[in-house]
Specification:
Elements (H helix, E strand, L loop, with lengths): L4 H5 L5 H16 L37 H4 L18 H27 L8 H6 L1 H27 L3 H4 L4 H6 L1 H21 L7 H6 L4 H9 L2 H30 L7 E2 L2 E2 L3 H20 L6 H21 L2 H22 L10
Antiparallel strand pairs: 1-2
């Protein structure tokens, strides 16, 4: 019996056949794969993005003032393109400020033109400064020009409406109106206590304006409508969220970590530390803007800082700019109503 018998039954062919098959296998392995893009109907699988916030990931420290889609890093694929950029940021605040400066130049030119033609009988700048028609009219024109230009320009950058970009959210303000009214009343009570403990000077610029015939009613209407609306857009609409974003951006750049939930309902989320610091930084210029009216007295200045902090809380806690506008307007309404009652319908302004 031959020893090769059992092995011959499992042999796959001669040595030449085996060599030929090996050559065929090597040629098959060496052939390059066909790209999926060249195969009709084939889908190229998307590469999975790295987890946000991992240390060592260069993309984790990417700037927040540009689109994540442009950086090639997409940690939040569910967000639409305009949601990937935090709105408003310092760049948008700069644009709004430039619009305000340009509007101020136009108002100055209009005022000087009115003085040149002796409009309303006013011939000098000193007279215009103390005339409520000039001061309030110039302020109203400044606000209108700034708002009009911003409404036309910024939506082109944001790819969303002006009020939506500022997170107006009027429904939330209506829903929480009782709490917001309570916040306004608390500010009103603090104003009464502040006037008792830290009274301001008697003859302030705002007191002189109030004694002008008809000025009290004009200030009443302007102070509870247009003034709160524009001031909230300026301070709580642009400045406050821009500072929150900038402070969070600095923290994220320094640590290389991104928040797990950077957006909510298409708007940015901020850290508590950034919101607290930004509220303080927003309240100081807000109080300084009104300090001249009260003769730069310390008592009214501290009161305005406190009121601004409450307005910042209303804006941030409700994620609604309309909420801070409502608190601001109601607070002014309470103050003017108190003066209205105390002066007999603004007929006895000497009692102020």
């Amino acid at each position: 019996m031959s020893l090769d018998g059992p092995f011959e039954t499992h042999s796959s062919g001669s040595a030449d056949d085996l060599s030929a098959r090996q050559n065929e296998d090597s040629e098959t392995e060496a052939a390059p794969p066909i790209p999926l893009e060249e195969i009709p109907g084939a889908e190229v699988p998307a590469l999975s993005a790295a987890e946000p916030g991992l240390e060592g990931d260069e993309n984790a420290a990417a700037g927040l003032f540009r689109s994540w889609a442009e950086s090639g890093y997409d940690p939040w694929p569910q967000a639409s393109s305009f949601q990937r950029e935090r709105i408003p940021n310092l760049g948008h605040l700069a644009i709004f400020s430039l619009i305000g400066v340009a509007s101020l130049v136009i108002v100055s030119l209009l005022t000087r033109s009115a003085l040149y033609f002796h409009f309303l009988g006013i011939t000098s700048l000193q007279q215009a400064v103390t005339d409520i028609r000039y001061t309030l009219g110039a302020q109203a024109v400044l606000y209108l020009l700034t708002l009009l230009a911003s409404v036309l320009l910024l939506p082109l950058i944001w790819h969303k409406s002006f009020l939506s970009g500022l997170q107006w959210n009027g429904i939330m303000a209506i829903r929480l109106r009782r709490r917001l009214l309570a916040a306004a009343f608390m500010c009103f009570l603090c104003a009464l206590v502040n006037g008792w403990l830290l009274p301001g000077p008697d003859d302030t610029p705002i007191d002189k304006i109030f004694r002008t015939p008809g000025a009290a009613w004009l200030l009443f209407g302007f102070g509870v409508t247009f003034a709160p609306f524009f001031e909230e857009i300026m301070f709580r609409g642009f400045l406050l969220p821009s500072l929150c974003t900038a402070l969070d951006w600095i923290g994220e750049k320094s640590t290389g970590r991104l928040p797990r939930r950077p957006f909510e309902s298409g708007h940015p989320r901020w850290s508590v530390r950034s919101m607290t610091a930004a509220s303080i930084l927003t309240s100081i210029p807000f109080a300084l803007m009104h300090a001249e009216q009260t003769g730069y007295a310390m008592g009214p200045f501290l009161l305005l800082v406190f009121v601004s902090m409450v307005l910042c809380w209303a804006r941030l806690s409700t994620r609604s700019l309309a909420a801070s506008v409502l608190v601001h307007s109601c607070y002014n309404l309470m103050l003017f109503s108190l003066m209205l009652l105390g002066t007999g319908g603004f007929r006895h302004l000497e009692k102020m």
